[in-house]
Amino acid sequence: MFKRLLMLSDAGSKNLRQAIIACTISNLTLMLPFIILLQVIVSLITPLTNHLAVNKSYLWLMVGLGILSSLLFLLCYQREYKKTYASAFGQAANTRIEVAEKIRKLPLSFFNRKDLSELTTNIMGDCATIENMLSHVVPQLIGYSCSSVITCVLLAFYDWRMASAIFCTLPIAFLIVIIGKGFEKKLGEKQLQSKLAVSNEVQEYLDGIKIIKGFGISGEKFKTLDRALKNMMWAAIKFEGISGIFVTLSTMVLKVGLGVVVLVGVKLIVIGSLDPITFLAFIVIGSRIYSPLISVLTLLPELFYMLTSIERMKSLQTESTMEGRNDVLFKDFSINIDHINFSYKQKSVINDLSCVIPSNKMTALVGPSGSGKSTLLQLIARFWDVDKGMITIDGNDIKTIDPETLMLSMSFVFQNVILFDDTILNNIRIGRHDASDEEVKLAAKKARCDELIARLPHGWDTLIGENGSKLSGGERQRISIARALLKNAPIVLLDEATASLDPENEVYIQQAISELVKDRTVIVIAHRLKTIITADQIIVLDKGSIVEQGSYQQLIDNNGLFTRLYSLQKQQFSISN
Ligand SMILES: Nc1ncnc2c1ncn2[C@@H]1O[C@H](COP(=O)(O)OP(=O)(O)OP(=O)(O)O)[C@@H](O)[C@H]1O
């Protein structure tokens, strides 16, 4: 049951079971000193009433048993501690790895549906919650409940009337906790939303700090952040405050049981149905037995709150992933796009599009902004799956190929280059992890990065800052091309970014691209139309459909959309030059 409910692995559920048993035993051993104390009191009081001498050897035996019981408790507690934390941290590590694996296989449509900061906050928060739940809540909760039930049964054998008195308030205390559950769920959800709002605001504030400063709106933006932080504070106060009321109320009700024990005990003594020693025993054990029960009442609301994290994790686990064969070997890299349709949520972006991208040739995608060029490139790379139709490479439907296997045959050069805060050498090595330093340097040279490296203070070993903040746009592009050259994949998908570059960088990048596209199947999104004059085929897109297709000369002769776009660009550049 635990395994399914808490999403545990085999080892995790075994460890948890052992932790619960250890916790129950260590809790029961905590009762032993009280039982021994009771025996000591009995052995001291009985001689007084019977006018006999105190049995000293019996007293020493009790002292010895007292020490033994403390040692037994230490031993059990140490085992409980070991098993509890082994189960919690081991399982939490597994959960994190499973989540990372799952995220790796999720399609982009999943990330499009979810807010990224919600995703990171939830995932990181949920993993930490599950860790906390397995280390500080579940074993204790179940262990305390089991030991309380065992003690209750033992006490009932001893005297069922007094045992009933001890536990008579327990159902009401539980009822209060259950009533509180509904409030806590609502307030917990609000608290989570306020946390997400803060993380969104902080991220937006930091990401947009240049714009915020540039337009002098830091005061205004800070007010929004301040408001979100205050909301989060109030949500936390409300949540803790209301939960506290229910927990305190249920604890108070439970403790009323001790008063009931006294009342019932006195009544039974008066009618001669109970001896004072048993009465004393119930008072001593009664005061002890409430502490694990109070822990159960305090931990239950925490468990209810934490189960929502498990629910979220479960829904992440049930998201469908992109799977496929990983034994495909392409002999030919021609790409056939056959009547495909694609939409983001409800927005249709590609409509009944068909074309053939020949192997070892350059195909350029051209079209107005928003016509679907980037989307088409991403569909070919299986970042998304088409809604209708089929894309095949060498006759294999890419929907049946594992995305990571497919990526082995493709290099992708994005406009928006992602770099890591590492050395230049390691940033280029991302193209192929097992590449030697010489291979990385050769790729960098072909991508015209050598001039850039010569200028850097520590050459290849220069750290380039977070997301390459110490490099210019053109330099980042060249590093990205070097990665693709190092990967040496037969298909190159290129989102050209020369539009915003200075002439010097543009020349370097054009040289780097010429190296990259040699003898490969290339699909390039061209923003500067003059760079694709030599392309083998130009596909002109408009509103997600092909409106023209052919060589540069054929399209110019056609005098259609391409010619219009080309003359517009010519005018623009003659004005800006
Ligand atoms: N992740 C997304 N979620 C929802 N809609 C999107 C997403 N990406 C793109 N779109 C929409 O799909 C349409 C096509 O976008 P796409 O980026 O493919 O066009 P494009 O031709 O590459 O444009 P540009 O030349 O400006 O880069 C646009 O209307 C865009 O708003």
TrEMBL record:
The chain crosses the membrane at residues 20-45, 57-77, 164-183, 242-271, 277-305. It comes from the Bacteria. Coiled coil: none annotated. One of its GO terms (molecular function) is ABC-type transporter activity. It is found in: Cell membrane. Signal peptide: none annotated. Residues 19-303 form the ABC transmembrane type-1 domain. This is ABC transporter. The keyword Transport applies. InterPro entries: AAA+_ATPase, ABC1_TM_dom, ABC1_TM_sf, ABC_transporter-like_ATP-bd, ABC_transporter-like_CS, P-loop_NTPase, Type_1_exporter. PANTHER family: ABC TRANSPORTER, ATP-BINDING TRANSMEMBRANE PROTEIN, ATP-BINDING CASSETTE SUB-FAMILY B. GO terms for cellular component: plasma membrane. Residues 335-568 form the ABC transporter domain.
